[in-house]
Amino acid sequence: MANKQDYYEMLGVNRQASDDELKKAYRKMAKKYHPDVKPGDKAAEAKFKEISEAYDVLSDAGKRRTYDQFGHSAFEQGSGGFQGGFGGFGGGGMEIDLNDILGSFFGGGSRTRPKTRRGADLQVRINLKLEEAVFGTKKDITVQAYETCGTCNGNGAKPGTTPETCKRCGGAGSERVQQQTLFGMTQRIVPCSACKGEGKIIKDPCTTCRGQGRVRKSRTLEVTIPRGIDNGQEIRLQGKGEAGEKGAPAGDLYIAVVITPHKLFVREGSHLYMDVPITFVQAALGDEIPIPTLDGKEEKYTVKPGTQPGAIAQLRGKGVPNVQNPSYVGDLIVKLVVTVPTQMNEKQKELLRNFNDEMGEDYKNHKKRWFNKVREYFK
Q1: Does domain 116-158+205-260 sit in CATH 2.60.260.20?
Q2: DSSP notation for 78-124
Q3: Bridge partners, residue 253, by sequence
Q4: How many CB atoms lie within 10 A of CB 84?
Q5: Contact 194, 203 (CB under 8 A)
Q6: What is the mean pLDDT of residues 87-96?
Q7: Selecting from 3.30.70.2190, 3.30.43.10, 3.40.50.300, 2.60.260.20, what CATH number does the domain 262-340 have?
Q8: Is 262-340 in the same CATH topology as 1-96?
């Protein structure tokens, strides 16, 4: 996968290409490399598979977002999570009939197969706590979707009967028609008018699904949340979308992640940020303080004497794992905030006045020196 060509480059378009530009580019290349155009040409066949694979991903809005974010690694191995195979060419939001392509340019196409419609992709949203997103977890989600009918096993026919092969098209799902154009008489391959492109006719439909082969149901799935997933990212579960029509492949399920803000920590990429208050005395004299971490434990940190307000402490490896490379973990970055007391009694005030006097003129004149620097700068 490391040397695999970029999908946009395969189709000869830029990453901002519109749906129409993608379709136009794919049509052009499909006409050039289709096996019916170059029969027996293994190189052309391989190229056709590559561009079809690229178009399958880029023509589907959900797959395209995932590919733009994670590249080819998002579709490795054909499993769930951020990986997965392809649900079949033409399964995206902009379906192209290859026979239309061939018919447009060559006055007809290859013998077609009955059309089956791939199930729709589904998208649901899941809310996660920051801890769940950082350390990973398992969640149950419930989706409403079309499922294969259990009564007829998806063929749409009443139990004990079977769909009959369409006599008009012989089960091909298509027929040739002649059409008079400006360039003379042409032939086109169109869906069969008798079976509507399915190749089968159901005379006695299933009473459960009314011949559709699918019924709408609610189902619950257990979803594995990978370590380090970020707000706005998606998890793709291949084949967990809606069932296809009458044996066609199922669509995919996309789970959009929304992370609830945390009371202490703010996440930016692989790093966590937080403010930790310390007293003036701790900043001046130094101290050892506990710093909370997202896993509920504490890390000891030594505040150096003379620490200034806003100083940064960085705890290595206490941040967020990278979702693509979990072995890399970011840092916890802490800003030390010096707190100033708002209420003091007279004894405390007197102690501070004595402290100020003991510091000498150099300390007391720091404000004056700062303003002098400002004046010099503007001169």
Answers
A1: yes
A2: T-STT------TT-SSS---HHHHHHHHHSS-SPPPPP-PPPPPEEE
A3: 122, 237
A4: 22
A5: no
A6: 40
A7: 2.60.260.20
A8: no
**Rounded Cα distance, 353 and 339, in Å:** 18
Residue with tokens 């178009």: 55
Residues 338 and 336: their CA atoms lie apart, in Å, by 6
- Compute the distance between CA of residue 291 and CA of residue 297 in angstroms, rounded to an integer: 9
CA-CA distances (angstroms) from residue 118 to 52, 66, 88, 121, 154?
16, 20, 8, 9, 13
Give me the amino acid identity at 280. Answer: F
From 68, 118, 127, 65, select the one nearest 95 (Cα to Cα): 118
pLDDT in tens, 41-61: 888 888 888 888 888 889 888
- Gap between the Cα atoms of 296 and 318, Å rounded: 11
pLDDT confidence band for 215 (50 / 70 / 90)? very high
